[in-house]
Write a structure and sequence with these properties.
CATH class of the largest domain: Alpha Beta
Oligomer: single chain
CATH superfamily of the largest domain: Metalloproteases ("zincins"), catalytic domain
Number of domains: 2
Helix content: 25-40%
Distance between the termini: 48 Å
Number of strands: 12
Shape: flat
Low-confidence stretches: 1-19, 26-37
Mean pLDDT: 83
Length: 302
């Protein structure tokens, strides 16, 4: 019986009478990047499928084909992990493959839901990827900003000037960042100039919010550092030093306030016990919703 996942294509037409060959023009050069498919071939052929790049086993969960990375290890039970790349299944050495697949089917609804969420998040991130050039758009405090390359000015001290264009029209950003770069500046130059400007804004904004929340929490911070960590938004140490990810300035200020209050609260409670969250709640009552936004809203890839 043919597997439901096998597709058969007939690439050959029926024989036709031979025709006199006509000279054909040379094919035009193909731009590899432009010719690349909009979606991976696997997703086109199997729209209801998920494949981990290191997949070594496959299973059908309802109508969804899932290829997963299966690992054996020293553990007591079967574990499922859904990440950006797909599903990873870990199992003890004594568990049979049939038992693993039975456990997968038992959790099929949860697994497929998490895989779909991971795919949608990945697609949103890719859709927000920035092309660093004149006219590029990036988020600042939750609002889009248009990059304007302005070689007439050096902006030596600030690195750029943010202009407000008044009330925005629907779908049109009202903020523009003027950078002292030539119109033929390389993407890396534009990216680095925007990052330098954002980091200066981050230092200023974070300092203001630390000064605001520290007295409310009855704590004293001593030093602020900026980080570029991939997934860690902030850290706090008992000596009063605070470290915050500069990319927080992409988010709206309430989200920044949550992270600042979170780290300052650690100067009172150095764990995540109920007492810690009660401390955060005293200054940011809606911290749960803001925390969810921080997890769910994807940032543009740099």
């Amino acid at each position: 019986m043919q597997s439901p996942f096998q597709l058969l294509f007939d690439f050959f037409d029926e024989p036709k009478p031979a025709a006199k060959k006509q000279p054909q023009p040379a094919p035009a050069p193909v731009d590899a990047e432009a010719a690349a498919p909009a979606e991976p071939l696997d997703r086109v052929l199997h729209p209801h499928s998920f494949r981990h790049p290191d997949a070594n086993r496959e299973v059908l969960l309802g109508e969804v084909h899932v290829a997963y990375d299966f690992r054996r290890g020293r553990r007591r039970n079967i574990g499922f992990t859904v990440g950006p790349e797909g599903l990873v299944v870990s199992a003890p050495k004594w568990v049979t493959v049939a038992e693993v697949e039975s456990a997968l089917r038992g959790k099929s609804k949860w697994i497929v839901g998490k895989l779909q969420q991971a795919r949608e998040r990945h697609d949103r991130i890719e859709a927000s990827r920035i092309e660093w050039r004149d006219g590029a758009t990036f988020p600042f405090l939750g609002e889009p900003v248009i990059v304007v390359l302005d070689p007439r000015h050096a902006f030596s001290e600030s690195g750029g000037v943010l202009n407000t264009g008044g009330e925005a029209l629907p779908g049109v950003p009202r903020l523009t960042l003027h950078l002292g770069l030539s119109h033929n500046a390389k993407p890396a130059q534009v990216r680095d100039a925007v990052q330098a400007w954002l980091m200066r804004q981050a230092k200023r904004i974070f300092t203001e919010r630390l000064e605001h929340f520290a007295p409310l929490l009855g704590v004293q911070w001593r030093k602020l550092s900026l980080s570029s960590a991939g997934t860690l938004w902030g850290t706090a140490h008992s000596d009063g030093s605070i470290r915050l990810n500069w990319r927080l300035v992409h988010f709206r200020q309430p989200v920044i306030d949550y992270v600042v209050a979170h780290e300052l609260s650690h100067l009172r409670v150095m764990d995540h016990s109920p007492r810690f969250w009660d401390t955060v709640r005293t200054v940011v009552p809606e911290y749960a919703q803001l925390r969810a936004q921080l997890k769910d809203e994807p940032l543009p890839p740099w």
